[in-house]
Amino acid sequence: MTVHEAGIGKYYEDFVIGDVYQHPFGRTVNETDNTWFTLLTLNTNQNHFNADFAARAPYGKIIVNSGLTVALVVGLSVIDMSQNAMFNLGWTDIKLPHPVFIGDTLYAESIVLDKRESKSRPYAGILTCKTRGLNQDGDEVVSWTRSAMVYKRGAKNDKGYFPKAKSGEMTLPAPASGDKADA
């Protein structure tokens, strides 16, 4: 029996400059997402939560909070770019070229721009990537450049966190009496 340790994502060694990752999930933004995020962040711009007010604005409807757009797109990218990161080091050049509306589905893709080994942490490296979010029609809705410190494959910090079951290891159940192996 083989036990596959818990873990997903890529390590520093897995990244190649110029590689593009089309992240696997899409996420449809609903009204509750936008309203709760707007209230949670104390954003009082009525274009994000007052349909009557937003109807008079240039787009004529509620615009999704740009902070939520950024948060969703970075979340979509984590599985490939920073699942095994220790922390973010910086974000630059955030752009929002196209509005996001309730009902839009967001997708994300990233390109590896640079990587270098950490001088202070031999078990990690610094990854720099550009990420962009696209809506269901292919319109670019957000982009940025981000740097993160990512564990190397041999780092011990992100291993061994799965708890040991007090009831013992998982095993196959014993065959019931009378079962035929070649049925």
TrEMBL record:
UniProt xrefs under InterPro entries: HotDog_dom_sf, MC_hydratase, MCH/BMMD
Pfam families: MC_hydratase (PF19315)
An MF annotation (GO) of this entry: lyase activity
Coiled-coil boundaries: none
Region (Disordered): 162-183
Record's protein name: Acyl dehydratase
